[in-house]
Amino acid sequence: MKPLLKNEIKKTFKRTDARVLLLLGLWPMLLSILVVMKPDVFKMDGSALGAFEFANYMVIIQNDIFLPLLVTVLIASMSLYQEITKKTIYFYKDIPRKNILNAKYLSIYGVYFVFLVLYLLMSYVAYYIAFIHQDMATGTFIAYPDEMADIIYTVIQIVLGATLYIHVGILLAVRFSTGMSMFGVTLFYMFAKIVPNFRILKFIFPIGYKNVIELTSHPYLFSMVLSLLVYAIYHFGLYTYNKKTFQKIQFH
Amino acid sequence: MIQVKNLSLKYQKANKYSLSKVSFEIADGEIVGLIGKNGAGKSTLMKSICKFITPSEGEIFMDNKNIRKEDYCLEDVGILLEPVFFNHMSAYDNLAYYLNIHGKEQYLDEIGHVLAMVGLEKNRDQKPTDFSFGMKQRLGLAQALIGYPKKLILDEPFVGLDPVGVKDLITILKEQVKANNMQVIISSHQLYELNELCDRVLVLYNGELVFDGVPDFSPHLLVTLDREYEADSSLDVIATDDARIIEVGMNTVDRTLRAVMQQYQVQSIETKKNSLEQFFVE
Description:
The complex is a heterodimer of chains A (252) and B (282).
Chain A: H1 3-14, H2 16-24, H3 27-37, H4 51-65, H5 67-79, H6 81-85, H7 97-129, H8 148-175, H9 178-194, H10 219-248
Helix pairs in contact in A: 1-7, 2-5, 2-7, 3-7, 4-7, 4-8, 5-7, 5-8, 5-9, 8-9, 8-10
Chain B: E1 2-11, E2 16-26, E3 31-36, H1 42-49, E4 57-62, E5 65-66, E6 77-80, H2 91-101, H3 111-117, H4 133-145, E7 151-155, H5 163-180, E8 183-187, H6 191-197, E9 200-205, E10 208-213, E11 220-225, E12 237-239, E13 245-249, H7 253-263, E14 266-272, H8 276-281
Parallel strand pairs in B: 3-8, 3-9, 6-7, 7-8
Antiparallel strand pairs in B: 1-2, 1-4, 4-5, 9-10, 11-13, 11-14, 12-13
Helix pairs in contact in B: 3-4
């Protein structure tokens, strides 16, 4: 690993906001403590859940709560906007700006993915410690093997969506204050949630491609490839624009 | 060697030049002072040399490398523009981070020594948020000096330092420059200290380099005449605000005074001790 990237990741993980995000990864454990103390507090409608369904259900919940994404945008803002305005960016001297930006991208996404893995692990732990004793738990790893592909697809779409929201956050954090970046990402999140409900507009955001499933004989694969393509285009466009903006910044 | 050639920076919106065709060189082992009023362009010039600002015209070379066309030209340059640090890391960690990202891990063992050199050895585990401005300035100097840089770019390094700190800094810089044959450019409003430290002075005025050289600090004589002095180009005389008083350089004092005394009656003679401060004001 290059020294810049390695040290940028270390520095990012030392930040308080990054530690807060990792603490949020322990949230399923807190929930399990609550369930142990008061078993009837967590009631879910619908079918029973295996560990796999439960963990993925928890991922959907954290995405809907939106807090982890906002904390990630805060980390992006501390890493970019704060360093630019407070001029700690002077530390890097004339290391190519592209390398600096890439290191920041990887460290921000790195923290988010560590959070996600931690959150998933904690969800499994919580299931086997506390939720397994609940009525809604089957006690098996997978309750409905037939729906596995659908669940995986949904979770991957959520994670891909999160990468896009974070990317928008990084883009905004290069130029705008922390509050503005958070506000911008919230607006984008709301917009992305609404757009799939419209007939034509839904294909603008990759999240709308779940409907393609109904049109093909190989639904998940086709839909996944298509949405990955659109995500790739989005990420490429945002990255190219962001790189240009970052390279042009003058540190008066 | 640092070479600055025809460097200009124009603010398009204000249609104003912050720097205008500035050219100079700094040779090995040379300490150059940069002086000028607030807004004269000193910090802009330094930030341009450090690649934090892109000039409109001109070129900067470091050891014959055009810094605009190549990356990693500043790896051997110690920079202190503003003492800024990562507040969530200790003083030691800030310096370690700086060395690590620039691939200078071999100097990690030197951090303690450099912190001791700037008087912060007991504060190595404290975070910069707990530091006074003077301590931050010292930490900034430690950052600029660590890793044995070949060049130093210091913007207002004396600000926030107490008199002992200033004296220490002058001693440290003199030692380091001598030991490592460094090239140094220092901007400061503390002209007495600059005078003590620098081999040469650059004066910026409204973005233009109006002086590049060694100011004449030899004492002059202030001669008060019985009447107003009438300009005579054959005499090496500097007029003053008071028309009856003339300033005579020591180099030509015998000849000039003899000639003046043939035409005027001299009422008094005083010695005027020149300094960089006086040079700057004039």
